[in-house]
Structures are given as structure tokens and as C-alpha cells.
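REQUEST ID: PR-0412
SUBMITTED BY: lab tech R.K.
PRIORITY: routine
TASK: structure prediction, single protein chain
INPUT:
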Amino acid sequence: MLYSLVAALALATGATPLTHEVRVGGGPVPLTLRYDAEVTVEHRQHGTVAPGGRADTLRCHWATRADVRRTLVGGAQAQQAVPLASTGALQPMKGHRPGWCEANRNAIAASVEAGLPRLRAELVAFAERDRPQVASEIHDAHALFRPGS
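STATUS: complete
OUTPUT:
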């Protein structure tokens, strides 16, 4: 009996956090601009199972998602934090494997782990490109972190 697997499965393998920090100065209080991205993996099951002797078409398609959030941290012992506008997303990693998504969970996790250095490098490059855009926000935030406020 052939049956189609049309439903999309969102089987998250857990989130992997990526963080990059940049010191920003120029004001009376040292500030750190922190970029956080949580890498999650979404799985999608495609294809059908075939009876014995016939090839099935089961495939697990997967893709990562990593939205970047930035936070300005400063004040006494860097205990004050101001979330800034979300800035975008990193390029997703994508792939597919034959068979069931659940059976391929470890192999997919290994593929994602192997791609994390690229995502870290992309996060650093993202922060460098973003720096001119946040200059005015940092200037405004210095007022929030002045001693006595």
C-alpha cells in the first residue's frame, strides 16, 4: 500500500546559539554591541513509501534558520541591556537526505555542526556591515547608561 507523506514536520533538533560582541566607545561609559543568532533546523518529509521490491521516494529536506538580534550592553558591570531592532537573518544552510527525517536526525545535526564555522564568520561580517547603521542608536543609548541613571 502506497501512502503519501504530505504533512510538513517541524522537528526541531534544538537551537544552537551564536554570539558576537563588539566594543563600542566614544562615550563616558563603555558599551558592548552583542549580536545573537539562534540556529534552528526545520525538517520537511517528502515522498512516499513503496511496497517491497519497489524504490520509495522518501526524502527529508532540512534548512536552518538564524535570525540576528542585537543588544546594547553597558552600565555597571555590564548589567544593563537595551534590545535594539532585529537586524535580519543569516543565510540558511539547506540539504536533503534519503529516508525518514527522524532516522536522519543525527546525520543532519552533524551537517549543521560542520556548517557552524561559516555561520559564525557570517555573523561577524554581518556585525561589521551593521556598524555604521547603529552609530546613532549607540549615541542615543549612551544617555541611558550614564552613571546615576
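NOTES: The longest strand covers residues 31-46.
REVIEWED BY: pending
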